[in-house]
Amino acid sequence: MPTCSLHPLPYRADPADYFAAVRQAPGAVLLDSGRPMAQRGRYDLISAWPLAELAPGADESANDFLQRLRAGLAKLGSATAPADCELPFIGGLIGYLAYDFGRRLEAIPIQAVNDLNLPDAHFGLYAWALISDHQLGTSQLVFHPALADAERERLRKLFSQPTAEPAQPFQLDPAFHADLSETAYHQAFERIQAYIQAGDCYQVNFAQRFQAPCQGDPWTAYCALRAACPTPFAGYQTLADGGAILSLSPERFLRVSQGQVETRPIKGTRPRGLTPEDDVAQANELLASRKDRAENLMIVDLLRNDLGRSCKTGSVRVPELFALESYPNVHHLVSSVTGELAAGKDALDLIAGSFPGGSITGAPKIRAMQIIDELEPTRRALYCGSLLYLDVRGEMDSSIAIRSLLVKDGQISCWGGGGIVADSNWQAEYQESITKVRVLLETLENLNSPVIPA
């Protein structure tokens, strides 16, 4: 089998300098582990200039689109990494699935307004990547065998002395506003409670959207956000219309490595304390909360079922339950569900059986999605979708696109939500939906005009 080739570069813990060299190129994408401030992620992945771009047609089914993604990988061609070299990606697909791609997988009514008009999915087929491994302290270019020699040489020169135009200012005019009033949120909450009491569902993840007119360079906004809220599943993707996806996600959706599957759902949140003592108290309260543990367990059970559709019978396990993870703005309760892909199944089968992630829908999933569509006034677009890569070996990693923003058509949109169960308190849930994204909103509202270096 053909082997990828490597070109070493000086190691950089922060991907900004390398990405700045390509960020204005077609299909520029950064999957960002949030280093050096965030500690959980291992790799940064940068690419641009895809060989092909794939998006679903207006009436194309999910399965037909996923089959086109498989065909794209097959066209690029099989390859392997050099011996004794651990690489997450050696060439393949990088892109996003919007939450609304789920409409192509399940029967969901069309009630929420599609005012953002974001395509349900978009992937580039990439024959190279710049990968920084923060565990080994390396940065290197990875070339798939299909990449032309002239392009390899161009990329070596480009990254040997990366230079870029300084990023331009980014600003809001005016500040963010919510699309739901507190009264409207309360009314939707009561409707969810009625559905729960009627036995329709056990949990519904309900969200509100914050929006503001904006102008300037989205990369400037992303650099400010990653400094304020570093997270291990962050990412920046350019859009064809000059917009961008800015994701500061702390949550893994699905990972596949050598046939082993993992998902890490987040359910349960507390704000960080104002003092060290208060912070410890908030964390301990979350760990001891029967409500949050029950909410987390509901989603763990849902994901065990989802993974079971594509994993070997008996291989699905829960090695970690109710673990504490802390971020600059919140504490989270996180669990892990693992499995082994069944014979004849691949990462795209796993996506088809599990998307969108149960942690951001509710339980049972389809009914929760129907209620979300009824009660949230606008479609979620990117929010609660996924940023992901999938390479020609079948290696995949993906996020849940929470703490994520969409810059499109002169507007920036951000969403905050949480799981509502029978014993939820509406004021607490309303406040949590704001707490989760407050650091993002305030960072951009406070962004001043001077240029932020790329």
From TrEMBL:
InterPro entries: ADC_synth_comp_1 (IPR005802), ADC_synthase (IPR005801), Anth_synth_I-like (IPR019999), Anth_synth_I_N (IPR006805), Chorismate_C (IPR015890)
Pfam families assigned to the protein according to its UniProt record, in alphabetical order: Anth_synt_I_N, Chorismate_bind
Descriptive protein name: aminodeoxychorismate synthase
Enzyme Commission no: 2.6.1.85
Species this chain originates from: Pseudomonas cavernicola
Keyword Transferase in record: yes
Domain of life (superkingdom): Bacteria
Example of a GO MF term: 4-amino-4-deoxychorismate synthase activity
Keyword Transferase: yes
Keywords from the UniProt entry: Aminotransferase, Transferase
